[in-house]
Design goal:
Elements: H1 2-19, E1 25-29, E2 33-35, E3 39-46, E4 51-56, E5 60-61, E6 67-68, E7 74-79, E8 85-87, E9 96-101, E10 109-118, E11 128-137, E12 142-147, E13 150-154, E14 159-167, E15 175-180, E16 189-191, E17 197-205, E18 211-221, E19 224-238, H2 241-248, H3 260-275
Parallel strand pairs: 3-11, 13-19
Antiparallel strand pairs: 1-2, 1-4, 4-9, 5-6, 7-10, 8-9, 10-11, 12-14, 14-17, 15-16, 15-18, 18-19
Length: 276
């Protein structure tokens, strides 16, 4: 008798639990969260002109609470702010990835978009799940640090600065590092600093004339020049006997003349060693 009562109670609890179950969507990026029908989620911030991905798992459960490994077949955006664009997740991709692109002229502020997870032809009896996503548009989507800010170098000798990008936004779009204000040739460098990560890169700088230089290391989003920060760097470039010796081999005039005997000996040594 007692066994029958316990079994009946457990059955009742199970039925109640199943009645309260419903399909869900597990969002995994750029933030995480479990969403049910008509739920909402704040995605963070993104810069004007940038793109970001909403990632979600295809796994879910039906209305009876039974797990379904591949339940959702795609996610797409059903409502977007004016001027925005989106690319739906390819069918049967797992995790699903919905790409959203913000126009380059988007004003600062919080925007709303509606996203739908779809079970194609309702094969798993899930229907569709719709949720609202909010995201803040602002150019302030990363923090920058460059070290050191004062350097002393030899003429023509590259010096590698450490550029640290703390990407606080939702986008994984590339950043471009370059030096502004140096007379010598310096190339730009495209780097990937993924969202919600801190990444450090080395960036070489150099000059081909002695002197005191003040220049900027600038990091900007490859998607928009509005997303940009700079660090001022002071450089002292000094000539050295070794630098001047290397220049002799390129036909650079000698200066001062008192060093000419030394240069001649060093140049001779260079060619002798090279011939061995």
């Amino acid at each position: 008798m007692k066994t029958a009562i316990v079994f009946a109670a457990l059955t009742t609890l199970l039925l109640v639990g199943c009645a309260g179950a419903s399909p869900y969507l597990q969002v995994t990026g750029p933030v995480t969260g479990t969403l049910y029908q008509q739920g909402s989620l704040y995605l963070g911030k993104v810069g004007p002109g940038q793109s970001f991905y909403i990632l979600a798992s295809a796994s879910t459960a039906n209305a009876s609470g039974v797990p379904i490994n591949i339940g959702w077949d795609t996610i797409n955006a059903t409502q977007l702010p004016s001027g925005w664009s989106a690319q739906s997740s390819p069918l049967y991709e797992n995790p699903m990835k919905l790409k959203v692109t913000v126009p380059s002229d988007a004003a600062n502020g919080t925007y709303r978009l509606v996203v739908k997870a779809v079970n194609i032809q309702n094969y798993s009896r899930l229907g569709n799940l719709t949720f609202t996503a909010f995201i803040n548009v602002t150019p302030n989507v990363f923090n920058l640090n460059v070290a050191p800010t004062s350097i002393s170098v030899g003429v023509g000798q590259p010096y590698s600065l450490k550029v640290t990008i703390n990407n606080t936004g939702a986008s994984d779009d590339p950043f471009v590092i370059n030096a502004q204000g140096l007379p010598a040739w310096n190339v730009s460098d495209d780097v990937i600093a993924q969202h919600s990560t801190v990444s450090t890169f080395t960036y070489p700088v150099y000059v081909n004339e002695p002197g005191i230089y003040s220049f900027n290391i600038t990091v900007a989003s490859a998607s928009s020049s509005l997303i940009s920060k700079s660090y001022k760097i002071n450089m002292v470039a000094k000539a050295s006997l070794l630098n001047d010796f290397a220049a002799v081999g390129q036909g650079v005039p000698l200066s001062p003349i008192i060093y000419e005997p030394t240069y001649a000996v060093m140049l001779l040594v260079k060619y002798v060693i090279g011939a061995i």
